[in-house]
From TrEMBL, chain A:
<keyword id="KW-0535">Nitrogen fixation</keyword>
<feature type="domain" description="Nitrogenase/oxidoreductase component 1">
    <location>
        <begin position="39"/>
        <end position="435"/>
    </location>
</feature>
<comment type="similarity">
    <text>Belongs to the NifD/NifK/NifE/NifN family.</text>
</comment>
<protein>
    <recommendedName>
        <fullName>Nitrogenase iron-molybdenum cofactor biosynthesis protein NifE</fullName>
    </recommendedName>
</protein>
<dbReference type="InterPro" id="IPR005973">
    <property type="entry name" value="NifE"/>
</dbReference>
<dbReference type="GO" id="GO:0016163">
    <property type="term" value="F:nitrogenase activity"/>
</dbReference>
<dbReference type="InterPro" id="IPR000510">
    <property type="entry name" value="Nase/OxRdtase_comp1"/>
</dbReference>
<dbReference type="InterPro" id="IPR049939">
    <property type="entry name" value="NifE-like"/>
</dbReference>
<dbReference type="GO" id="GO:0065003">
    <property type="term" value="P:protein-containing complex assembly"/>
</dbReference>
TrEMBL record, chain B:
<comment type="similarity">
    <text>Belongs to the NifD/NifK/NifE/NifN family.</text>
</comment>
<keyword id="KW-0547">Nucleotide-binding</keyword>
<dbReference type="InterPro" id="IPR050152">
    <property type="entry name" value="ChlB/BchB/BchZ"/>
</dbReference>
<dbReference type="Pfam" id="PF00148">
    <property type="entry name" value="Oxidored_nitro"/>
</dbReference>
<comment type="function">
    <text>This molybdenum-iron protein is part of the nitrogenase complex that catalyzes the key enzymatic reactions in nitrogen fixation.</text>
</comment>
<dbReference type="GO" id="GO:0016163">
    <property type="term" value="F:nitrogenase activity"/>
</dbReference>
<keyword id="KW-0408">Iron</keyword>
<keyword id="KW-0411">Iron-sulfur</keyword>
<feature type="domain" description="Nitrogenase/oxidoreductase component 1">
    <location>
        <begin position="24"/>
        <end position="443"/>
    </location>
</feature>
Length: 453, 460
């Protein structure tokens, strides 16, 4: 079937140096479109999920909890309470009579069973609509259990994933500031917006440690309530530019006077910058900069020859990038450029005006820039632009494969670390194995193309 | 030890579910709708649910799963979702060009009380549904039943909408396969062809969720029950509604609307249930069961004969959907195995009644539970108290299997970490062979792995 474009979506598609004006964005999705977006609850859940010694109770009907059960692969070096699925499993009677009693019981029963360091209670759409006073229940049970019980106001319909990030930050903000900060050195940071997928937080923490910087907490990768409670003791917040924890950084700046910088751990350039920027912040100690340079030199000398190999194989290939946040797209474009691959489609689910401006500057002429796209548009442009690789999330994977092109997961389904220097090699390796897979030779579309030549 | 948090002592829980053995209605409705050719499921609610349901089906089938969403905002959840749905129809038909839009509700639209049938009527009246196109809908509040209920509700809607009553009878039967895999639907169709029995099957996800790689992304793959077939189903002589939980409602709708008599039968898993199904098909159609199928049956019996020493007395824990668990339990018992712990998150009294019938004395000594708090946490506790030799269930069983070092066979929904379920059936005699192969493989692999050096042998 011919892929048309929804009239109302026309201005959410922008082709560099061909389209007029600017791209429209930050709109709620059109009713009736097959959007790839999720909900507020989803945003909160992914941010708080990795806090491993807390209970995560989903207050709502069973689906919301069962679909988010252990789907993120955020590694923990200790407890793994976060990987279980707790739900109040609201039934019809609860919807009619209210679910507060059930929630209170659930928190109490679970609190006694698992002795968690804290409890997060997620409000889903239904909890919001039936008007349960979750905050009050949390307050009562916190007293009973003697640990923080925090409401996360993540009713799905109240916005997008981004609003969920904010709700999660609000909950975290209540833990920050409650711990003892004596003994935390001046050269110390928190890493924000890093979720330890495939152990990435461990790699990054290690770089900083080698520089002589103490990492007090990572939020929320391999997270512990105890560490988060001390987070206000640092001199600097380093925010991974996923955007998800920026609210918390802003809050901490306001309340505790802790400045923050934005970094990205993806790509050689950005990863190195992330180390230098921290070193420069602590300029009273020039040793840090020297150490950082040493680390960068060392790491790059190890990976460069290997990157050369992938560049030779992959130069000239074209990629389509469609990811959640726009920042991810920036890093990906740069990383692909390093091996002489070009990006022909770049899009995000939740970018804002500024993001898209930056994206446009970064892209080559003719690149299709998309906001809140859908499978029809995506597959149409992939064919039109003859992309060899798609970078996206779980719902895009089978589409790419059906089109007969390579795929790389840059969302939470991946099992290998993409951050840091080692991550770069992992990334190129994955791109290589997927794009160059012999299976594409069997794809009927490619066969057909051959016989026409 | 991921599940180190599970204590052995079973305490009565009142208010919470830990590691559910079920999920919510809309995903079942979405799956059923995908079994109609040219049908686009549409989720009436906020984006999150739809996105989760699509992701989970995508992970299970490794196939693109399309569905629209009404994209509720705060406004819609206060003032109702009528305008969202009307706009959705506009957009869905103009851009994705489906033949059918299958709307299902979510908790949210149910709770605020959107009347989808009234809104749909309004859309028809206002000419928003193009000529020749169809809109069907099912009410699927997630706080009632489970994903199986949602599947059943959508099947019932299909049966309510399409079949046309005729005063003549066609030489064909209807098959409502229940919530099984595309491979199972394919297998049941093969059996019918082998018997030369004309049939209409719906929903039919074969060809949709096991579509071949073509180099193109087809929004509507070639599989699925067609609208003409669905219409004709009203003139069939009989309906086989497989699985009480997933198909009875649709069978009843067909009877009410078109006077097609029906019988609820168990999903043909294992020897007994397959025997009963084929005998009944033969009786209704007048077509005998051919030698080729008898041979298949004979091969199953032969495998069991050969391997019975490895099956005898093996204790099994199982969990999943009732329509699958019922015949599976019967099959295990027929092989002299001992199903000792059984949970199903899906509520419904019939499950316990039927299990009691099948299990006899074993029911009293075993642990069987469904409905609220029949979850994986409880199953794990039971296993801790009485260990088993084998676990059968969906992917979520892998945690228990690993922690307790128990052989594990994946069967049910969802299976997120393996392939096979959409390509190889568990139904019919062919399916029985596959179940045997998987069980024996799992049990014997463990024996090999753990045998002391001196007892490790070439031939088992
Ligand atoms: S809100 Fe309801 S329909 Fe949506 S995922 Fe949760 S349980 Fe399922
Ligand atoms: S939109 Fe609402 S009901 Fe659906 S998954 Fe999100 S919180 Fe749950």
């Amino acid at each position: 079937m011919e892929a048309a474009i929804l009239k109302d979506r026309e201005n959410q598609i922008f082709i560099k140096e061909q389209s007029q004006g600017e791209i429209a964005c930050e709109k709620s999705s059109l009713a009736g479109s097959v959007s790839q977006r999720a909900c507020v609850f989803c945003g909160s859940r992914v941010v708080l999920y990795p806090v491993a010694d807390a209970l995560h109770i989903v207050h709502g009907p069973i689906g919301c909890a069962s679909f988010t059960w252990d789907i993120r692969g955020s590694l923990s070096s200790g407890p793994e309470l976060h990987r279980l699925s707790f739900s109040t499993d609201l039934r019809e009677m609860d919807v009619i009579q209210g679910g507060e009693k059930k929630l209170e019981r659930a928190i109490t029963e679970l609190g006694e069973l698992h002795k968690p360091s804290a409890v997060f209670v997620y409000a889903t759409c239904i909890a919001g609509i039936i008007g349960d006073d979750i905050a009050a229940v949390c307050k009562r049970t916190a007293e009973k259990l003697g640990v923080p019980v925090l409401p996360v106001h993540s009713e799905g319909f109240k916005g997008t994933k981004k609003d969920g990030y904010k709700a999660a930050c609000d909950a975290l903000a209540k833990i920050v500031g409650t711990g003892d900060i004596s003994g935390i050195p001046k050269v110390s940071i928190n890493i924000l917006g890093e979720f330890n997928l495939a152990g990435e937080a461990w790699m990054i923490e290690d770089y900083y440690r080698r520089m002589g910087v103490e990492v007090v907490s990572v939020m929320t990768g391999d997270g512990r309530i105890g560490k988060i409670s001390k987070a206000h003791g640092v001199s600097l917040n380093v925010v991974q530019c996923s955007g998800s924890l920026t609210y918390l950084a802003e809050h901490m700046e306001e309340k505790y006077g802790i400045p923050y910088i934005r970094v990205s751990y993806f790509g050689i350039e950005d990863q190195s910058r992330a180390l230098y920027d921290v070193a420069d912040f602590f300029s009273f100690n020039p040793e840090l900069r020297t150490k950082a340079e040493e680390i960068v030199r060392e790491e790059i000398s190890v990976i460069m020859p290997r990157i050369q190999y992938y560049r030779e194989k992959l130069a000239g290939k074209k990629a389509a990038v469609y990811v959640g946040g726009a920042f991810k797209a920036f890093s990906l474009i740069k990383a692909l450029r390093l091996i002489d691959m070009s990006v022909v489609i770049a899009g995000s689910q939740t970018g804002n005006k500024n993001d898209y401006k930056q994206l446009e500057e970064l892209c080559d002429p003719g690149t299709v820039i998309l906001d809140d796209s859908n499978p029809l548009e995506l597959s149409r442009f992939v064919l039109e632009k003859k992309a060899d690789l798609f970078i996206g999330g779980v719902k895009e994977r089978p589409i790419a494969y059906k089109l007969g092109i390579g795929f790389c997961d840059h969302n939470h389904e991946r099992k290998i670390a993409l951050a840091g220097y080692e991550g770069m090699i992992n990334f190129y390796k994955e791109v290589y194995s997927s794009v160059m897979s012999p299976v594409w030779k069997f794809a009927p579309r490619n066969n057909r193309r051959k016989s026409h030549e | 030890m991921l599940l180190r948090h599970t204590p052995k002592e079973v305490k009565d829980r009142k208010a919470l579910t830990i590691n559910p053995a079920k999920t919510c209605q809309p995903i079942g409705a979405m799956y059923a709708a995908l079994g109609i050719h040219g049908c686009l499921p549409h989720s009436h609610g906020s984006q999150g649910c739809c996105s989760y349901h699509r992701s989970t089906l995508t992970r299970h089938y490794k196939e693109p799963v399309m569905a629209g969403t009404s994209s509720f905002t705060e406004g819609a959840s206060v003032f109702g979702g009528q305008s969202n749905l009307l706009q959705s129809f506009n957009n869905l038909f103009s851009i994705y060009d489906p033949d059918i839009v299958a709307v299902h509700t979510t908790c949210l639209s149910e709770t605020i009380g959107d009347d989808v049938s009234q809104i749909t009527q309004k859309a028809i009246d206002e000419g928003k549904i193009p000529a020749g196109k169809h809109v069907i809908y099912a009410s699927t509040p997630s706080y009632v039943g489970s994903h199986v209920t949602g599947f059943s509700n959508m099947c019932a809607s299909i049966a309510k909408y399409f079949p046309e009553k005729q005063d003549y009878e066609l030489d064909q039967v209807n098959i409502l396969p229940g919530w099984v895999e595309p491979s199972d639907m394919r297998e049941i169709k093969r059996l019918m062809s082998e018997m030369h029995v004309p049939f209409v099957m719906f929903p039919d996800t074969s060809g949709v969720l096991d579509a071949p790689q073509t180099g193109f992304h087809q929004f509507y793959p070639k599989g699925g029950a067609s609208v003409p077939d669905l219409k004709r189903s009203g003139a069939s002589s009989f309906t086989f509604a497989l699985g009480k939980f997933s198909s009875e409602a649709a069978g009843e709708e067909l009877r009410k609307k078109c006077d097609v008599p029906y019988e609820v039968m168990e999903v043909p898993i294992g020897i007994n249930a397959t025997d009963r199904f084929l005998m009944k098909v033969s009786e209704v159609s007048g077509c005998p069961v051919p030698e080729s199928i008898n041979d298949e049956r004979g091969r199953v019996v032969d495998i069991i004969t050969d391997m019975q020493q490895y099956l005898h007395g093996k204790k099994v824990a199982l969990f999943g959907d009732p329509d699958i668990l019922i015949p599976l339990t019967e099959f295990l018992l027929a092989m002299d195995m001992k199903p000792v712990h059984i949970v199903s998150g899906t509520p419904g009294k019939y499950f316990m009644e039927r299990m009691k019938e099948i299990m006899g004395d074993d029911f009293e000594t075993g642990n069987v539970k469904n409905g609220p708090r029949a979850d994986m946490f409880l199953l794990h506790q039971w296993i801790k108290n009485e260990p088993v030799d084998l676990i059968i269930g969906n992917t979520y069983g892998k945690y228990i299997a690993r922690d307790e070092n128990i052989p594990f066979v994946r069967m049910g929904f969802p299976i997120l970490d393996r392939i096979g379920h959409s390509y190889f059936p568990v139904t019919g005699y062919a399916g029985a062979m596959r179940i045997l192969d998987k069980m024996l493989g799992a049990i014997m692999d463990q024996m090999d792995r753990e045998a002391p050096e001196e007892k490790f042998e070439l031939v088992m």
